[in-house]
Amino acid sequence: MASLPVYRYLVEEVKMDVGNPDTAQGFTPLEYAVQNGHLPAIRYLVDHGADLHQERSTLTLLHTAAVHGRSEIVKFLLSKGADVDALSDAGTPLTLASLRGHASILKILLQHNADPNKGNGVFVPLDVALNKSFVSCVKLLVQGGTNVNGDNPLAKAAEKGLTEAIKCLVEAGANPNVIDRFQYTCLKLTRNILTSYDFGRLPIELAAEYGTREDVEILFPFTSPISTVANWTVDGIIKHVEMEIKQLEDGSFVKKMSDLKQQGDEAFKKQDYQNASVFYTQALKMDNFDAKLLSNRSLCLLRMGEGRRAYEDAAECTKLRPKWAKAHYRKGAALMFMKEYDAAYSSLSRALELDPESEEIEKLFWEAMELK
Q1: 220 secondary structure, DSSP code
Q2: End-to-end CA distance of the chain
Q3: At how many degrees (to 10) do helices 135-143 and 93-100 cross?
Q4: Which contiguous run of DSSP H or E holds residue 213?
Q5: Nearest residue to 325 via CA among 362, 349, 351
Q6: Cα separations (Å) of 236 from 203, 208, 210, 217, 259?
Q7: Beta strands in the chain (DSSP E)
Q8: pTM, rounded to two decimals
Q9: Would strands 55-56 and 59-60 be described as parallel, antiparallel, or unpaired?
Q10: What is the residue-level pLDDT of the chain in tens, covering all 372 positions?
């Protein structure tokens, strides 16, 4: 890490251009100083003409300071006119601070009127904070005016067992009567009667499975009774969910999984993507670590025009099987649909690297390359 005397020598004696990137990684002196948290060097470089508004792959210096938790540098950059809501492929500085759990950075950004509802088309800061279980960040974002009824954050908090986050969201007006994000309606014609079947669970059901009794008790007064729960009490809900889990763990588990996969595949062949996604969702409730099911459902969602959800499934798929080309291909396809061409190019590059013989991947890769 270059010190202030080194920068003085390079600028004043060697006459170094402060805007020139190095030949190793292509970073400018100012970028290095921000990454390393060297505020005196930053002040000096700015005083000698360094560009505070430079970007690298859509990331600004404020993004870099935020993700590294550099509070004083964030304050300095904002005082010099940095855009508090600058949007990159990864989101705003607020998103990156939420990703790392830097509550002190969130406070500063929110005090400078950062928009907690601004995202990159895939997620917003609240989604990131909940996914990473950073409850302190969740609380700050709620206080800062984030939309507590966006992509069902209450369901995410319940599934993570984040008691304090559940309390915070409910107090802020989050709706506990919204089914989790994989609710779809399956239509079936029986004896000329069209019947709908709704799949998905409410936050209180997720809390009963993944959280604690306290989580269920918090949600209970605000949740409308579920018709399938005979005993509408806290104990009744918990027992109902326990019974559902036992039913999935009985001896016919393998057959049920096989049947659901087959039904999903058959519906997909008929281009009935709605019902195919329902069957894949039901199968995933039995085994949510099945990467192939996630890949299949991602494709269904994409065919249904649900780009964001298709991306979420594909992204989860890449976590489960990071060396599976199709997972990265699905992710790239979803990003292409959302017109996130730089990110799509990155995902498709990885897919092609893993499966260089795939014509399907190669075709989409070149499309992304032309559009990015």
Answers
A1: G
A2: 33
A3: 150
A4: helix 213-219
A5: 351
A6: 15, 10, 16, 12, 30
A7: 55-56, 59-60, 185-190, 193-198
A8: 0.65
A9: antiparallel
A10: 556 777 776 766 777 777 677 766 768 888 888 988 889 989 988 888 788 888 777 789 999 999 999 999 999 999 999 999 999 888 999 999 999 999 999 999 999 999 999 988 778 999 999 999 999 999 999 999 999 999 899 999 999 999 999 999 999 999 999 988 544 434 333 333 333 333 468 999 999 999 899 999 999 999 999 877 878 999 999 998 888 777 666 656 667 778 899 999 999 999 999 999 999 998 888 777 788 999 999 999 999 999 999 999 999 999 888 889 999 999 999 999 999 999 999 999 999 999 989 999 999 999 998 887
Which domains can be identified in the chain, with CATH numbers? 4-148 (1.25.40.20), 149-246 (1.25.40)
Quickly tell me which residue has 């579920």 as its tokens.
Answer: 226
Helix %, strand %, coil % for the chain, to 5?
60, 5, 35
**Do 2 and 16 contact (CB within 8 A), yes or no?**
no
What does the block give as tokens for 136?
A: 């302190």
Instruction: Tell me if 208 sits within 8 A of 297, measured CB to CB.
Output: no
CB-based contact 151:157 (threshold 8 Å): no
Q: What does the alpha-carbon distance between residue 207 and residue 196 come to, in Å, rounded to a whole number?
A: 26
- The alpha carbon of 128 is separated from its chain's Cα centroid by a whole number of angstroms, namely 6
CA 143 to CA 114: how far, in whole Å?
Answer: 12
Amino acid at 315: A
- Chain-centre distance of CA 67, in angstroms? 16
- Which amino acid would we find at residue 175? N
